[in-house]
Write a structure and sequence with these properties.
heterodimer, A: 314 residues, mainly alpha, globular, B: 559 residues, alpha/beta, 25 helices
């Protein structure tokens, strides 16, 4: 152990009686100064979190019990907002769409990239770099949505030309209630989702594990199943949680590409909140719906943290 | 860079502790700055305000700021604007104009700004209600905009606007007070069409009294291997249904919204008692899309997609606002005509929406865009803001700008970019040519016909503004989008009944702020006005469709 790493108690702000000699005022000053610096450093962050984080959150919970006016005094209305939201058939429909969207999104853009990342790692390094470059081109999500909207056009879009060019029947793409969610998620597959993170995690798995497995005669798939996937578990668990939360809050792409249609088949909960309730100045109802969604996400997160273990050795 | 402790600090470095202190202090200052940014929320604005009147603008529909020297150097025509604005500023000493970076076109941004008192002085009125009149009037009732009645009178705005504009001002009034001032008179959404393609196909051009049957026939005749007859935005079936009298909101001649004063919401929705009629209309539209294949429509189609289709020659007609015809430069109808070696008038036409096949008027309704002002503006700021509005939209500044446009471009299309004008002007002294010379008789005659359509009675004229939350009624639009896009659907009548159940289930959770007796009296007046209007403007529809329905369904309810 080098002496550089050994710190005296004073160096970390702890003042001992031996150092102060029982009364040492001068020895206390650095500790006070240190505490002041710490205080100054923490208070702004605390204030910022209080003003822009916790205060709006608490206000949101309270707003759902009022008539939610933009200006002027609000009136307490009890659970009226929750009553309206729970009686609204559009809400149940939007939750159904959101859950379908989340499930499909996780299957297509979360699981597939794990295996793509594993296969990419097997490629020669030069090819791998090119593939990564193509996948991770920085594209604006909004520009991407506009571009894909034109590509999906059922009459003049590029994808229709490809489909019919291959001799397949023409597809309705975004015009079909049955297909619309798949086509909204499809670009996420091409953009490789969290693939870059998987690739970084894969590189951290010691090569010696694979060499030992090969000595034992393990096949390619056996190595993936026994070494790769368990070692990826900490990162996949974390990413899965982010993916679930993110997909339950999704609304930009459906908003930009279909406006929630056809027949509300792509109208998610957040989109209903944003395009159905807020334009009508129904702030308390929108907040009540947001609180319900918050409850759903929180419940899923707690269950997830309770039952899914991150440690690969568990 | 960092020293381990203060004792070893030198003039060339700082200690880690010092760094922490400075960082903490800087973070505190930044945090305080953030809090001050919220000052208006805490009522500190007036304390920080300066004595001088500052009008805050985020550009149109309020005023453009004074051009900078660099802007004038880059575009010398800006000097003309600078001179016109300076003239007003000279007449109003003590007033200055400040450009602010604020997205006034997003409803949520605007409402958040209003909550905090940080919006620009003027903004587009209907953004408040997400372009919905009922929501916008609810915003008036909540005090989200300034009352400008006093300045409307004192600055003579009432005498400067054309009669067809004044006729619509009631939309921006609530309880006799005025909350918005006109900026653009829109003739309404109709159809832009290619006159040359109609001629080539031997199809007669549409006239203001055309019907949906005429449209379907024309679209089929204009469809070729490379071109569809007509392009629609994704909600076009709404137009078709409304032209026959089916809608989710009470508008003149609508037979699907029934007054129900005994219920909490006061209205119920009936899509089934005339199910045969609606099924036949929906089937007709679906036949256009799926059998005739004469329609370009997609779930992603907005007005830009439709405009792009007609500019590219992929369609012969497009359901659009006539404002798209007025675009100039690259990607404009004018440029298409020029590329084809034709005049604008030979190439382009515009016509209002077709009538329903039973004779109900089309859904093209002239519409008045407007500007509203911040409720936080002081009386002096408000007076200055309305005076500046009056100068640029109706007064000396407007005339001077049009003349300057002519002098700098010699293009009548730029001078007559807005037609019909707010003031009713059809000529300027020093400009050789009016709207017809600019856009051609085919366009202007139909715009004039549309603008002179008698204004229909609207429910806001009769009912108090709803101040309670209202249902979204999305089930109707959802049902129509399914009928528009799904190649195979179930029994349309059954699906109509499901949509009705859904919309009534949603409405059942709402309570209107309008008392039953007030509602009933308003309903009597509203339906009396509808009766008179339909008799005069859609006599066949009135006699054969609406009146029998009224006698059997509405009369028993309202007595």
């Amino acid at each position: 152990m080098s002496t550089e790493t050994v710190r005296s108690p004073a160096a970390v702000g702890v003042v001992t009686e031996h150092e102060t000699g029982g009364s040492g005022e001068t020895a206390l000053q650095p500790a006070r100064r240190n505490r002041l610096a710490t205080f100054l450093f923490v208070v702004p962050a605390f204030l910022a979190q209080l003003i822009w984080g916790w205060y709006p959150l608490v206000m949101a919970f309270l707003l759902a019990f009022t008539d939610g006016r933009v200006r002027g005094a609000v009136s307490f209305t009890g659970i009226d907002s929750y009553r309206r939201i729970l009686a609204d058939p559009n809400v149940g429909r939007a939750f159904g769409v959101t859950i379908q969207y989340a499930a499909l999104s996780i299957v297509l853009t979360f699981i597939i990239p794990i295996f793509v990342a594993i296969l990419l790692m097997e490629m020669p390094r030069r090819h791998m770099r090119w593939m990564m470059l193509l996948w991770f081109l920085p594209l604006s999500p909004i520009a991407g949505a506009v571009l894909w909207r034109y590509m999906y056009n059922a009459q003049y879009g590029l994808l229709q030309s490809i489909v019919t060019g291959l001799g397949l029947p023409s597809q309705p793409f975004l015009n079909s209630e049955a297909q619309v969610l798949f086509w909204l998620i499809f670009p996420g597959i091409l953009f490789f989702g969290p693939g870059l993170i998987y690739m970084a995690a894969l590189q951290s798995i010691p090569q010696s594990y694979y060499e030992a497995a090969e000595v034992e005669g393990a096949s390619f798939w056996r190595k993936i199943w026994t070494i790769t996937l368990p070692r990826l578990r900490p990162i996949t668990v974390l990413m899965l949680m982010f993916a679930i939360i993110g997909s339950l809050q999704q609304f930009e792409w459906p908003l930009l590409m279909t406006g929630g249609g056809p027949n509300g088949a792509s109208r998610t909960v957040v989109m209903y909140l944003y395009t159905g309730l807020l334009p009508q100045l129904r702030y308390s109802d929108a907040t009540a719906l947001a609180v319900i969604l918050f409850g759903v996400i929180m419940t899923i997160t707690i269950l997830f943290r309770t039952f899914v273990k991150e440690d690969p050795d568990v | 860079m960092f020293k381990k402790d203060k004792a070893s600090s030198s003039p060339t470095g700082i200690s880690r502790r010092d760094f922490l202190k400075y960082a903490g202090t800087a973070a505190a200052a930044a945090s305080a700055g953030g809090v001050l940014g919220y000052a208006p929320l805490f009522g500190l604005r007036s304390a920080l305000a300066q004595e001088q009147i500052v009008l805050r603008t985020a550009r149109w529909p309020f005023v453009e700021p004074m051009p900078t020297a660099d802007e004038i150097a880059a575009d010398p025509t800006r000097q003309v604007y600078a001179d016109i604005l300076q003239r007003w500023l000279d007449q109003n000493p003590g007033v200055s104009i400040e450009l602010v970076d604020f997205n006034i076109w997003d409803q949520q941004t605007l409402l958040t700004g209003l909550a905090g008192g940080i919006t620009p002085t003027g903004f587009h009125t209907t953004v408040l209600g997400n372009y919905n009149i009922a929501n916008t009037r609810a915003a008036f009732a909540q005090g989200l905009v300034a009352d400008v009645s006093e300045y409307y009178q004192s600055l003579g705005i009432d005498t400067l606007i054309a009669p067809y504009v004044r006729e619509q001002m009631g939309k921006w009034e609530l309880d006799g007070r005025i909350y918005a001032l006109p900026t653009v008179f829109n003739p309404g959404v109709g159809f832009i069409y290619r006159r040359d393609l109609f001629t080539q196909a031997g199809v007669p051009e549409p006239t203001p009294d055309w019907t949906w049957a005429d449209l379907r026939e024309a679209a089929a005749a204009l469809t070729t291997a490379d071109r569809k007859g007509v392009a629609f935005q994704r909600w076009a079936l709404n137009w078709r249904m409304e032209a026959e009298g089916a809608m989710q909101n009470p508008t003149v001649g609508t037979m699907t919204v029934i007054p129900d004063p005994g219920s909490g919401w006061n209205w119920r929705y009936d899509f089934t008692s005339q199910s045969d009629r609606w099924v036949s209309v929906i089937q007709d539209f679906r036949d256009m899309v799926f059998s005739d294949q004469s329609v370009f429509i997609d779930a992603s189609n907005d007005d830009n997609a439709v405009f792009s289709a007609i500019l590219d020659g992929r369609v012969a007609m497009a359901g659009l606002h006539p404002g798209f015809l007025r675009r100039v430069g690259e990607g404009s109808p004018e440029r298409v005509a020029s590329d084809l070696g034709q005049t604008f008038e030979e190439t382009w036409g515009w016509v209002q929406q077709p009538r329903g096949n039973t004779g109900r008027m089309g859904v093209t309704v002239p519409f008045l865009d407007a500007i509203s002002f911040s409720p936080d503006a002081s009386p002096a700021e408000l007076e200055a803001a309305v005076s500046l509005y009056q100068y640029f939209y109706l007064g000396e500044g407007y005339t001077a700008q049009q003349q300057a446009l002519w002098e700098s471009t010699n293009e009548l299309k730029r001078v007559w970019g807005e037609f019909p004008t707010l003031t009713g002007l059809t000529s300027f002294d020093s400009i050789p040519g009016g709207p017809v010379e600019a856009w051609g008789a085919a366009v202007i005659d139909n715009l004039t016909a549309s603008a002179s359509t008698p204004y229909p009675p609207e429910n806001w004229q009769f009912y108090p503004a709803e101040t309670n939350p209202a249902p979204t009624l999305l089930a109707w639009g959802d049902f129509l989008s399914r009928q528009t896009f799904e190649p195979t659907v179930g029994d349309i009548a059954t699906e109509l009944a499901a949509a009705q159940d859904s919309i009534n289930a949603e409405a059942a959770a709402f309570t209107s702020s309008i008392p039953d007796d007030v509602f009933t009296n308003a309903t009597r007046s509203y339906f009396a006005a509808e009766d008179a209007y339909l008799q005069a403007n859609a006599p066949d529809y009135y006699a054969n469709v609406w009146k029998p329905w009224f006698d059997s369904t509405i009369a028993p309810v309202i007595g």
